[in-house]
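Checklist before submission:
- one chain only
- standard amino acids only
- sequence pasted in full

Submission:
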Amino acid sequence: MTRFAAFSSLGGTVALGATVRGQLVCQDGKAPATGIAVTLNNTQTGRSVPAFTGGTGMYYMTAPAGQYVLEIWLSKQSKTPSATYPETVKEPQTDIPRIPVSACSPQ
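Returned file contents:
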């Protein structure tokens, strides 16, 4: 499994990816979901390192432009994500719409 980083070297040039950001909220849509792991998975580049939601439920990551599956990990012990969403990452920035989740913090 290949993991991609925020910066990658391609033929001696540094390729910066797109900034990807979004927010997870509790099911009520009001309170932020904090400490939840979020990854991007791509069949060619593999799964990203996790980004974690902060105190406002926001997460930020960098990824090359392309087709991904956004993965939300509500359980620290799970081997599969709790929820997945197909996403197209475009440069320079991709904003993911707010996503309500069933747990307000990791289980």
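Reviewer check: The chain is about 0% helix and 50% strand.
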